[in-house]
Amino acid sequence: MNRMKQIRIPLFYKLFATFILCSTIPLLIISSLMYGLSVNFLNKTIYDQTYTNVEGAHLRINDKIVEYEGIIQGIMNNDNIIQAISIENGHEIHENAVYEIIYEALIEQSIKPVVHITNLSGSVVYSTTPIPKTYIVGLKNKWGIIREIDRKVNHTVIYPQKIIYSPGKSSIISLGRQIINSEGNHVGYILIDVPREMILEEMKAIHSGLSLHVVLLDNNAYTLLDTQNASMEGKFQRSSYLDYEKNLEYKSIKDEISKDSFLVVNYEDAKLGTMTIANVSSNIFHSFSRILGLILLIGAIVSLSISCIISYVLARFISHPIRDLISIMGEVEEGTFSVKASARSNDEIGDLAKYFNQMLDRLNSYMNKVIEKQQQLRTTEIKMLQAQVNPHFIYNTLDVIKWSAKMGQKSEVVSVVTNLAKILRNSIDCDEEFVSVKRSISFIDSYLAIQKIKYNNAFKVIRNIDHTILECKVPRLIIQPFVENAIVHGLSSNSGNGEIKINGFVEAGIIEFQIIDNGIGMTLEEIKKVSDNKSDQHIGIHNVDQRIKLYYGEDYGVHIESQKFKGTKVAIRLPYLYEGETL
Amino acid sequence: MNQRTKAIKTKIEWKSHLKNPRYWTLLLIVIALGLILFKLPNEGVLLLMQKEPESHNLKIHSPLNERIIIPIIKEFQETTGIQVEYLSAGTMDLLESLDNKEDKYLMDVMWGGSKEYLNIYKDLFEPYTSIYNHEIHQDYNDKENYFLGYNLLPIVLIYNTKLVSPEEAPKSWKDILDPKWKGKVAFVDPSTSGSAFIALSFILNLGQTDSEYNWNNAEKLLNNLNGKILAKSSEVYEGVANGDFAIGITMEEAAISYLHRGEDVGIVYFEEGTPVITDSIALMKDAKNKKEAKAFIDFVLSKKVQTYMVDQFYLRSIREDVDVPMGLMPMDELNIFDAANLDTYERKASVLRNWRDMVVMRVQDGE
């Protein structure tokens, strides 16, 4: 069941995918890291630098403001000034003297701020530049900076407001303070207008090569300074218009930042009470990160293509031998045993191929052996069958019967005929390859009975069979050939002293049959000749040995010992097996 | 044999990976890299404008000139701490947005627009009695206080002193219809300018014999305009001051400002009567910041601000305890023609359509 649900993904694709992943993941990680880190580094560096610059500019501006505050202190405590604006004795001080004091205080300043000194109503005014209407109105109505000054008595007020004096000359912040006379009465005001030029110069120093848009706002979103859109100065950042043209002109910093901003630095100046917004627009950095991104992308594509090719080649290289092996195994399965797997690579797959080949060889040789054994068995059995019904033997036996009958030896005739019948019945009855020892011996007895009569009791037979082996199964006709041999060849020249001993016993799990005669014996060469397969006359002997070896293995078989003129001993060795048992 | 059996057992159970400390260190490194990768420090994006949530800002729509709006709003924000957002647009555009308002919330306060105009949209406003109600000249207010007047704007004739001598200058509405002023009259399109609409209304009512408007007068006026109808009110006094036109119809405060600036202009108050626009301020019924809106209305009507408007902009205050701008005739000396007597406001659409048709016909006639 499980196998059906599994999707088959060939090894090649698994390898290919693995290789691609292994090559692209490091690539992705490294390039993202590089991109991210360099962009981060850049961001941070630029932010820090811009912030430091803005801070520096503000510190310098603060220093200037402190100088202006010093100027205010100097002037407001000057008795001549106080007198000049005091209503009572105003006429006694000549205005030149007043301006001398003012310009003396401004002498250090390279960019001169505008200074106004007024009495309470604005009827007496000393100004370095004609006082704007807004101050006169402000004095009358306690409006704007005047209101602030009156609120924060004894403090110098810093008030954001844009005043345009003339084209190109304007102020964006004003300082002011009450002028108090020695009795502690409020007699007038001193106002200093900080030139836009001064602030702008400090802000310009921030730029340092980046395209920076700096906007200076107060707490109510009133624009004091806008380095790029001067038309926004003196307006609020939160205004809106219905007129299309006006909307185009109006450029709030918030809109700009939402549309195009790389980095924004916000700086609060506590002394001025302002918020500076520096917007680094993204042009350079977009191009930079775009180029960086492009380089990384191209690099990624190139390396990806290369790794694809390499992965493909490698995956094929590795998976190919396995595929070959599988196809060869397929052929073997279909019955072609003559194939061989190529065991070229020196790794586990090569080992697999090598062992597969070995296994195949072993299989082949094993199968060949089995076939061979079967063939041999067939041949042997056929020969055995042939040996069984030996025409010579029947002819000779019939001859014996004839002569015995001629001589009127009734009992001999009966005996021979009976025994012949037994022998023939044994031969016909060839269902089983294995017969009991008992039956084999009974067959030998019949044979011997006939031979005794034939040879006229020329020899003696001593049988000694261990009764424990009587029921053992042995191959048929293994003893008879040797007995025949002993009689026919061994005792042919003896006269009456011939003796054949037939022993059967079991020893150490091996059944041994011995046929010992005291005949003429054989030389070693003759033994060899007898054991040879080729000789037609001695088929039976070789046949027995072969059959035993085929059935039981090389450890068993027939052994012939002989001494010329002394005798021959044939030993047949078989394993001791009961009925049903197999080796 | 051994090599073969060893090869079979190389597969490691995955659970044993968990016990391996090397596995954990590798995992930690990967996580650390991932964090560095994706962490994008984005400091300093806090914007001033985003500090306050939008809805707490007081929203004001005003047709006033920005030079008037900005200082007053600046002072308001600084003294009360209430943050303001304003939309500046022409009167007609603003009124149109009121037409198309439906249920949308547009603003809290409508600051500007004559009371005749605001009366049309009365049902969009909520009545509010200012804390300075007692100081206000009651003649100029809506009785129910749906909208409150804060400035009085007389409509005057402005003339270029270099082109016209004081004797030659027109004295009455009728005078400007005289063909001798053909091509020399600066006049704004009444469909965009409130002051021009009042002027037109006055002209249409002039010498009215029956209930119909005197479109004859309108014809005469158009003859004198000679195809040049200006788009913005500012173009009238600018045009007269720089000599493009000899005479023009404009608001007193603009003419006075130019006079005080030293431009070559002179002012005439029409004989038949001086229409006075009562510039009014109204609280929207669906205002979201009513408390702040009321504070603003009171601010505008306060003596301080009213005096400031007089001193700085030559606007006439609605308050009885505030003097008129220096050098100007007090209200009771002006021959004021109450625009409420003009019923053209109710028929604004048809009046303007007629005017437009007349203009178009002239263009087709090849003027």
Name the CATH architecture of the largest domain in chain B.
3-Layer(aba) Sandwich
Total tally of structural domains of chain B = 2
Q: Tell me how many strands of chain A there are.
A: 17
Instruction: Give the CATH class of the domain at 389-575 in chain A.
Output: Alpha Beta
Distance between the termini of chain A: 42 Å
Query: What is the helical fraction of chain A, as a range of percent?
Result: 40-55%
What Rg of chain B do the Cα atoms give?
A: 32 Å
Low-confidence runs of at least 5 consecutive residues of chain B: 3-9, 39-52
Taking the sheet with the most strands of chain A, its summary is: 5 strands, antiparallel
Number of strands of chain B: 11
Q: Any idea what the radius of gyration of chain A is?
A: 66 Å
Blueprint of the fold:
The complex is a heterodimer of chains A (583) and B (367).
Chain A: H1 2-5, H2 11-76, H3 79-85, H4 95-105, E1 114-119, E2 125-127, H5 133-141, H6 145-151, E3 157-166, E4 169-180, E5 186-195, H7 196-204, E6 212-218, E7 223-226, E8 240-241, H8 244-249, H9 253-259, E9 263-269, E10 274-280, H10 283-334, H11 348-388, H12 391-406, H13 410-428, E11 434-436, H14 437-454, E12 459-465, E13 473-475, H15 480-490, E14 498-507, E15 510-517, H16 524-531, H17 539-552, E16 557-563, E17 567-575
Parallel strand pairs in A: 12-14
Antiparallel strand pairs in A: 1-2, 1-5, 3-4, 4-5, 6-7, 6-10, 9-10, 11-13, 14-15, 15-17, 16-17
Chain B: H1 2-8, H2 15-19, H3 21-38, E1 58-62, H4 66-80, E2 84-88, H5 91-99, E3 109-114, H6 115-120, E4 125-126, E5 147-160, H7 173-176, E6 185-186, H8 194-205, H9 215-225, H10 234-241, E7 247-251, H11 252-260, E8 265-268, E9 274-284, H12 290-301, H13 303-313, E10 316-317, E11 336-338, H14 348-364
Parallel strand pairs in B: 1-2, 1-3, 6-7, 9-11
Antiparallel strand pairs in B: 3-9, 4-9, 5-7, 5-8, 5-9, 5-10
